[in-house]
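Thread: "does anyone have the structure for this chain?"

Original post by V.I.:
We have the sequence but no experimental structure in hand. Need at least a predicted one for the grant figures.
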Amino acid sequence: MLIVQKYGGTSVADYEKIFCAADKIAQDYLKNHNMVIVLSAQGNTTDILLEKAGEISNNPSKRELDALLATGEQQSAALMAMALVEKGLPAISLNARQAGIFSTSEHGCAKIISINPDRIKAEIENRKIVVITGFQGVDEYGEITTLGRGASDTTAIALAAALSADLCEIYTDVEGIFTADPRITKDAFKYKEIAYDEILELSSMGASVLHSRSVELAKKFGVEFSVKSSTVAAEPTIIKDITSIEKKSVSGITADRKICKISINEIKAENVPEIIHLLSKNKISLDIITHSAGDKFDSLSFAISGADSYKAMELLSIYNIQVNENLAKLSVIGPGIAYETHIAAIFYETLLEEEVKIHLLSLSAIKISALINREEVTNIILALHKKFMEAGILSPQISWKEDNA
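Reply from O.Q.:
Generated one for you, tokens below.
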């Protein structure tokens, strides 16, 4: 059996955790499984490297920043290979170039184009444990690229697809996928299994368990994978294609706490597509767009990532803009949620009861999202979770809560 395992930064944060992960890898290897391991940078290494870059330049070259950040994963991979050798196991670390991971050229947000697995397969045939750097690739010019924060998940899923792996496991600091952040909501349910579309929405709306592009890849190539704790012996959550779901309930509640709202007043209708094209050209993604037509002028409001706020304000400086950077995007996710009016009613009623102001609102077939003040997020997640539990629409029948009682 070929197993791909990914270990997050907290799972390899120090030498003790590296050896703990090495023990897990060894157990599977000694069962005669072939092992491919993908690693994130240790602990907060990426943040430390970003701080170091900030000490040198307020606007560092994206190419050099990628070259710097990629060293974090190379460090983790080399240390893990050393730890496995110390245990008497054959292991080799490979960076993205050596592993044949080819990407686009957008530094900081590159996408994997293809993987040439020949080197990996050759090492596996020699019964070596192959330890690969996550989060990075190499473009057609041989330049190092990074795939975006949290993208070691994407590396693992892409490798599982390219190698036709029998099993793909994502090890992290939580026990699986919950209906809400279990660190905030103590009675959150953990799912035994969840569909690609549901976890994709949860990830893209702010849930930090998985990189959203990893789920997109998994769905595209049919890679079934699990999310499990690297420190606690608990059953995982399986992410798979569940096409027969007809339940209309809430899968989860999540929030992206770093959102900015930009409003532009007194613009002409023909300016709207120009603004959207301008932001798109500069890699700024828009969400929850509202466009109101007036007698003489139109108005436009939209949400963007807080990380893009300064750049967006520069690009739109010729317009009359208003900016609110103290916002979060609260999202309720669930299949068919838009067609169950009682879910929307509970959502509105709860926000009204908690006196939460809605700055922008969007509704789709699988989610309700609202921009709210950042400091109100925790309380409203707790209130919504309680309301949905009381209404019996959090699907506890497919959680681990009862099994672990």
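V.I.: this helps a lot. The chain has a mean pLDDT of 88.
O.Q.: and Residues 203 and 210 are 6 Å apart (CA to CA).
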